[in-house]
Design brief:
heterodimer; A: 548 residues; Aldehyde Dehydrogenase, Chain A, domain 1; 38% helix; B: 589 residues; alpha/beta; Aldehyde Dehydrogenase, Chain A, domain 2; 2 domains; seven-stranded mixed β-sheet; six-stranded mixed β-sheet; globular; Ald_DH_C (chain A); oxidoreductase (chain A)
Chain lengths: 548, 589
Amino acid sequence: MNASSYLSRKKKKQPNEHTAMTIASEIAMLGKTFETRDPRTGEVIAKIAEGDKEDIDLAVKAARKAFDHGPWPRMSGYERGRILHRFADLVEQHTEELAALDTLDGGKLFHVGKLQDVPGAVQLLRYFAGAADKIHGATLKMSQRLQGHTLREPVGVVGHVVPWNYPTTMFFFKVGPALAAGCAVVIKPAAQTPLSALLCARLAKEAGVPDGALNVVPGFGSTAGAAIAGHMDIDMVSFTGSSEVGRTVMEAAAKSNLKSVSLELGGKSPILVFDDADVDMAVNLVNMATYSNKGQICVAGTRIYVQEGIYDAFLKKAVEVAKKSVVGDPFNPNVQQGPQVDKNQYDKILKYIDLGKREGATLLTGGKPCGDKGYYIEPTIFTDVKDDMAIAQDEIFGPVMALMKFKTVEEAIQKANNTQYGLAAGIVTKNIDTANTVSRSIRAGAIWINCYLALEPDAPLGGYKMSGFGKDMGMDSLDKYLKTKTVEKEKRQNAHAGPKANPKPRTRKRIYTSWAKIEDHEWELKNFRLFSRASKKRVLVTLGSVTY
Amino acid sequence: MAARKAASSLLSRRLLTRPCPASSSGSSALLRAGDNLYPDLDRARELLPGAPLQRFSTAQAAAAATDEPIQPLVEIKHTQLLINGNFVDAASGKTFPTVDPRTGEVVARVAEGDTEDIDRAVAAARRAFDEGPWPRMTAYERCRVLLRFADLIERHAEEIAALETWDSGKPLEQAAGAEVPMVARFVRYYAGWADKIHGLVVPTDGAHHAQVLHEPVGVAGQIIPWNFPLLMFAWKVAPALACGNTVVLKTAQQTPLSALYVASLLHEAGLPEGVLNVVSGFGPTAGAALCSHMGVDKLAFTGSTGTGKIILELAARSNLKPVTLELGGKSPFIVMDDADVGQAVELAHHAVFFNQGQCCCAGSRTFVHERVYDEFVEKSKARAEKRVVGDPFRKGVEQGPQIDGEQFKKILRYVQSGVDTGATLVAGGDRVGNRGFYVQPTVFADAQARPRQPMILVYQVTAFSINVVYDESQIAKMDEMKIAQEEIFGPVQTILKFRGVEEVIRRANATPYGLAAGVFTRSLDAANTLSRALRAGTVWVNCYDVFDAAIPFGGYKMSGVGREKGPYGLRNYLQTKSVVTPIRDAACL
């Protein structure tokens, strides 16, 4: 297999080059290491420097210095954009390598990584490179004699904790807008998938991101991650991962320096398939929504509600398609589903499948591991799922679909919203009214109509309810890396407000006055006239009257 | 990166904070109060006893325009019209000469577009818009084409700059150091907008879903001037393309070369055929045909106010296409009494003399407070006399020739009119050398009629303040001279004396133009007051000619319609479509 030989070549060379922490862009090996494993086999790929609290301290110090004294926030947005464009070009040149690292480290499909994920990350980075010089403040209308404007300034040192499901993509979800805004970053990649982030850090340095502006510290959540969330010198933390961990991040932020928090957490996203849908199209869409990336997607469509009219046809077809899915080595281009990321996840998914069966749901297909090595699980479908079952409520993060039936639009909306999560939802219908009503009625951060996983750089993504707050992607995501500063200054009495105080010359007799400030009240010009003897001759003088 | 920054951030800032690169005699161009302003002058007299009477510095004398012109190292690749992705001859087969303003000699003969060529170009643009891939591809793909174009511009920077200098006579250092990087910056800026064009979803008073789509307007007709051929190309073409429009561009007949060259680079970057069509030619023929064309959906023009009026009329008479106009100016540059006079002189000098004075926003009315007036005039004279005029290809030259014989004559006529109406000619006033279109940096002082009676009629004394009452009729008469009223578009500075803020506001605003203004002061209050009171599209405070891609630019009054650059520049090339549909039983409205 070509990809495999490519990998074995890379495996020897590349990963080990970037296994150390990148602090202040200097690659330095400090003490302890941990292992990152190939989920196809469970074998160790590389030993990675294990960042802990002291390493986070070092990284934050470097970031602090880069932000407080370094060039990054002081250069123009255009210059930052230029560097990010170069960064994007370099990432593009390393597309295969990054895709291979994520496949090796996370069991992701190599060809998807190469054709979609990494090019998508490059596009995202270019998007933010183009946004770096489009951060606008506003001039304000004041009610008093003041003039005011706002400045949008970078928030400072940003801590990022990213998950293992899309290592490269998530890296740029976070780092792209933060760097564009002018922040300095300390990012902790997931313990399972640290390799691509380290390569990206090297590319960033090569592109010209100044030392200290981007620091990568691989390590575990309970140590390095906790140190980021609780750090007194980090101004903002952005986390993508599970809702439980999100809660601890927020708590640590509250207990430390009240840093602002952005959380992109779990989901149990519904897809509503209405009677008027084309069944084949709907099944393919749902299949993609549930099983893409082995179901390890926060926005995965895992609760499938099908209207009763097409339920049976849908079910039959869904099982057919799931059975046809090829599970195997993610480097094989014919494979549609690779292994789960690690043993923990693998065990957790199998536990949920077992729980589903015990709670009385009907297992239609799948439900078993594949092969005798690695963490492969068959695409799994349950029916007869009740809304209160664990497999309908909890985020499984694996290739497990819960298939349910509904009768009316109202019922579908009610069921779709019956969850603590609110990350995304899908609608499959040809009816414009259904699409409009449902898309406005579901409490979720992303609604995909007749499409799914339509992740676009310009489209903000983030959750309602316990799926988190704060957006990734789009111009909205820049907002969270910016602070608004309001500047107001006194506008002195003699400041002309504009045309009113400054009419065009007309006649020789036309006379103007300027006005004094009396106890902060404004004088306004009125056409009230009287004679004055202030000059030697009698002249017409226009006087003002006081208005409060 | 530092070099790039210095180049693309603007001249005025650079010139204020660093020794002027152009002063080859080694003395700093940054003048400070108390500097001896005349050493160069004295040396010049010693060294060149037989030199012409003009009191020019050594540097200027060394770079005298009479030297043999430097042969530019650039090949002219394209002289035909660019229609539908191909370089073609004019339908009539006619050509016209484009002239080297250093010598008046012909640089190249260029295909002369006329009505028929405009028809062909519009047909190509129409097809590219109505059926072609450009408006249909994703914004990211358009963005990529523009980014590649910017990279190509940087790669060919030297060639482009040389072509620009050859055709327009602007100093090569300015073209290469500032303008070409600005073009790349500009293209990248709008490339970044392409995928961020947002409409609003608006709340309605009822159960309706209303969303606003911003769609490209269609075929844009664009006419650009000769003073900044490349920059104007970028100002016009980049936002139009980023939004997904197709373009028919008519360049100025004086400077057709650089646009043809960069348009070929844009195609190399992946622009589909027909999306950008470039027609060289004259205003009354090709320009008028474009403006009157029924197949053109939008017009954008930069040039004189007189021509702007005609364009607006032609648009009205044909298909009511919307028009963006960026027209003339007679911009005031106001020096308050608290200013550092040396710095003020330097900045005011660049405000007016930059690009041979051929800037629509040139700060050509220099208003100076009476308390610093005499010192200012003296130093301005010295600075103008020190200005290095010569072959724009020569290093250290600050000022090249004017664009053509017509402009050259017009400027000298204005100088004569200044002298005739009683203004004091302080410096310059004549041509330089006897070949090409070089004009001496010229400074007029006292360019105002002496008031026949006191301007201030009344001092109103109240318990709280003293109010000054001006006689408006006197103020209006002060700046009646032609050189204080009309756009000269040449290296002619007109210095005017003023007494107070109120007075200078009135005088500065007493013009049909309103393109830009400069304010030089240390006072926060004066800066605030003036920047709000001046009726102009741009007010530069303690800087001038700062043209970043993100800063909107355009005129008040007869200086134009609409704004270019920044997010505002996108509006010119976008239609707004509201899409409304009922929603039933929505959870939120």
